C-alpha cells in the first residue's frame, strides 16, 4: 500500500508515517503544491496512491486548493478508464471544525476528515473504513 502525507509540520508527518509504517510505504511532502506534483507524477506513471492525507493549512498551496486540483487531475486521468475508483483523500485539520466547515471539505471532494492531534486508533479506523486494512488490524 502507498500513502501520500502532506503536512507542513515535520512532526505531524513523522507521527502519521510511524502509525502507518506497518501497513504502507509513505511519501511525505510539506505543502499542497508538492502533494499535487507527486500525486500527478505517480498517476501518470501508473503508480496510484491508495490514500492521501492532506493538511488543510499549508504554505505554497493549502489543502483545499490541492484537493480541488488533485480531484480535477484524477477526473482528467480517469476519462475513458473503465472501473477507475477515486482515491480516498482524508483532510487533516487542527481547527475546531464546525459542521459547515466539514460540509465544505466534502463539497471539495474529500472522502473523510481527521482532527489533530491525530491518534493511531483514529487513523487506522479510517484505513479500515476504506478497506485498506482489515478490521481489528490495530490489535496486531
Q: What's the overall average pLDDT, rounded?
A: 87
In CATH terms, the superfamily is Response regulator
Q: Main β-sheet: number of strands, strand sense, barrel status? A: 5 strands, parallel
State the separation between the terminal residues, measured CA to CA.
17 Å
Backbone structural class: alpha/beta
Note the run of SSEs as H and E.
Answer: EHEHEHEHEH
| Low-pLDDT regions | none
Could you characterize the architecture of this molecule?
The chain contains five helices and five strands. It is of the alpha/beta class and 140 residues long. The chain has a single domain (2-119), classed as 3-Layer(aba) Sandwich (Rossmann fold), CATH 3.40.50. Strands 2-1-3-4-5 form a five-stranded parallel β-sheet, sandwiched between helices. Helix 2 runs parallel beside helix 3. The longest helix has 16 residues, at 63-78.
List keywords for this structure.
140 residues; alpha/beta; Rossmann fold; five-stranded parallel β-sheet; 5 helices; 5 strands; globular
Offer a quick outline of the entry.
The protein has 140 residues and is of the alpha/beta class. The protein has helices at 10-20, 32-44, 63-78, 99-107, 120-129, and strands at 2-6, 25-29, 51-55, 89-93, 112-115.
List the helices and strands and how they pair.
Elements (H helix, E strand, L loop, with lengths): L1 E5 L3 H11 L4 E5 L2 H13 L6 E5 L7 H16 L10 E5 L5 H9 L4 E4 L4 H10 L11
Parallel strand pairs: 1-2, 1-3, 3-4, 4-5
Amino acid at each position: 500500500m502507498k500513502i501520500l502525507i502532506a503536512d507542513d509540520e515535520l512532526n505531524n508527518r513523522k507521527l502519521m508515517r510511524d502509525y502507518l509504517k506497518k501497513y504502507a510505504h509513505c511519501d511525505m511532502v510539506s505543502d499542497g503544491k508538492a502533494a499535487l506534483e507527486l500525486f500527478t507524477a505517480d498517476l501518470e506513471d501508473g503508480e496510484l496512491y491508495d490514500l492521501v492525507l492532506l493538511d488543510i493549512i499549508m504554505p505554497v498551496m493549502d489543502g483545499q486548493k490541492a484537493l480541488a486540483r488533485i480531484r480535477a487531475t484524477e477526473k482528467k486521468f480517469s476519462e475513458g478508464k473503465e472501473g477507475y475508483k477515486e482515491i480516498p483523500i482524508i483532510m487533516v485539520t487542527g481547527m475546531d471544525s464546525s459542521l459547515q466547515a466539514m460540509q465544505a471539505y466534502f463539497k471539495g471532494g474529500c472522502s473523510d476528515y481527521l482532527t489533530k492531534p491525530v491518534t493511531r486508533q483514529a487513523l487506522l479506523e479510517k484505513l479500515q473504513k476504506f478497506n485498506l486494512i482489515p478490521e481489528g488490524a490495530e490489535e496486531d
